[in-house]
Design a protein that fits this description.
This protein has helices spanning 5-9, 17-31, 39-55, 58-65, 88-96, 123-128, 273-278, 337-350, 368-377, and strands spanning 115-121, 130-141, 157-158, 167-174, 177-184, 193-194, 207-218, 227-230, 246-252, 259-261, 264-272, 280-286, 289-295, 304-307, 323-330. The longest helix is centred in the first third of the chain and has 17 residues, at 39-55. It starts with a helix and ends with a helix. It is elongated, with a radius of gyration of 41 Å. It has 378 residues and is an alpha+beta fold. α2 runs antiparallel to α3 (39-55) and α2 packs across α5 (88-96). It folds into 4 domains: 5-96, Helix Hairpins; 110-143 and 206-254, Sandwich (HSP40/DNAj peptide-binding domain), CATH 2.60.260; 259-330, Urease metallochaperone UreE, N-terminal domain (HSP40/DNAj peptide-binding domain, Sandwich); 337-377, no CATH class. The chain has a 4-stranded mixed β-sheet. It has a 3-stranded mixed β-sheet with strand order 1-9-8. Strands 2-7 form a two-stranded antiparallel sheet.
Length: 378
């Protein structure tokens, strides 16, 4: 033949289909009439398009390589013309780098979606772990058709509109000549087959919704908001496809005594002034039972006492956090005469009848400007 399509596209004769496609994309972006309206460029664009039509089709390429005319009779056939009946999606592919839609029939079997449920547990369950039974509402495989989607004894048949291709093509005239666009078949919705007798229970979807029981293990040390993944326990996909995953989000209820700080548990202990001064043993109700806590004599307000190993277990390593007891010292507000006399006697014994005047925090007896003045005056 007079035209060397390989030379037109600038590829070798043993070029792969992907190499031919990349070459066409590059030239189409350069020569498209919207980019370069010159008449000579339009002729070259048509030549590039014809070359791509031949070399991208294995059957036409084989005829061309054997010396035949792969476009013989094309001018009078449907969908042919100056552009050789090139599918318009290939031109979009050249400009946007991907096809506008996936060609060929779609699969009816697809993976299901992931599901999310929330479960509330007490702080004690988060510390010690717990086994729970949940009621989960998800899609499962249809028990009647077992995911097939058809009634007994029936099967899917090839769509008579698209002949099983899942798409239909339409030829239109434009300044480029005749171009062909493709869209999903409206009858089979792109699947290439139709269901003549859908299952009466699932209406051909292959799945139904139901409520089922599911047992989960809440691990020791789980935190509020933690999500536990259960593979394959989510929604079954259309056509009886594989199930997605189920995520269980743990919500820990507030505790009346403890708050959580990482793997430590924090609480507050209010001490009478005398107990803080003399020391005392307090029975603390931990999540593991009652544990004695020794409050040393002379404990000051705001002191933090630590109870090692009574906190939350570490999730991925051995050991536990601690309980942190914040001490608040309570000063008596109502004293009878006897109590007041005893406190005055204690103050006399300790030499605490008078309190010194306020002073600066650094103990120097004055502020910065006072000290600066004293330095120069002195």
């Amino acid at each position: 033949m007079a035209t060397d399509y390989y030379t037109v596209l600038g590829v070798d004769r043993d070029a792969s289909t992907e190499q031919i496609k990349r070459a066409y994309r590059r030239l189409a972006r350069e020569l498209h009439p919207d980019v370069n309206p010159d008449p000579e460029t339009l002729d070259r664009f048509k030549a590039v398009t014809n070359a791509y039509e031949v070399l991208s089709d294995p059957r036409k390429r084989e005829v061309y390589d054997l010396g035949g005319d792969p476009l013989a009779g094309a001018s009078g056939g449907p969908g042919q013309g100056p552009m050789g009946g090139v599918n318009f999606t290939d031109i979009f592919d050249a400009f946007f780098g991907q096809q506008t839609a996936q060609r060929g029939p779609r699969s009816r079997v697809r993976r299901g979606q992931d599901a999310l449920v929330r479960v509330q547990v007490d702080l004690a369950a988060a510390v010690t772990g717990e086994r729970r039974t949940l009621q989960v509402d998800t899609a499962v495989v249809c028990p009647t058709c077992h995911g097939g989607g058809t009634s007994d004894g029936s099967a899917f048949v090839t769509c008579d509109v698209c002949a099983g291709r899942g798409e239909i093509s339409q030829v239109q005239r434009s300044f480029l000549g005749q171009v062909m666009t493709s869209r999903p078949c409206p009858r089979c919705r792109g699947y290439g087959t139709v269901n003549p007798r859908p299952c009466h229970e699932c209406a051909g979807d292959g799945r139904v919704r139901t409520r089922r029981s599911l047992t989960i293990d809440v691990p020791r040390g789980v935190a509020n908001g933690t999500r536990l993944q259960m593979v394959g326990e989510g929604e079954v996909g259309p056509g009886g496809g594989p199930a997605g995953d189920l995520y269980v989000e743990v919500q820990v209820r507030p505790h009346p005594v403890f708050t959580r700080d990482g793997d430590d548990l924090v609480c507050q202990l209010t001490l009478p002034m005398t107990a803080a001064a003399l020391g005392i043993t307090v029975q603390v109700e931990t999540l593991d039972g009652v544990v004695p806590l020794q409050v040393p004599a002379g404990t000051q307000p705001g002191a933090v006492l630590r109870m090692p190993g009574y906190g939350v277990p570490h999730l991925q390593r051995e050991g536990r956090g601690d309980i942190l007891v914040h001490c608040a010292v309570q000063t008596p507000t109502r004293l009878d005469e006897r109590q007041a006399a005893l406190l005055r006697e204690l103050a006399d014994l300790r030499g605490e009848q008078e309190v010194s005047a306020p002073r600066a925090e650094d103990g120097s007896g004055g502020g910065f400007f006072s000290r600066l003045r004293d330095r120069f005056v002195g």
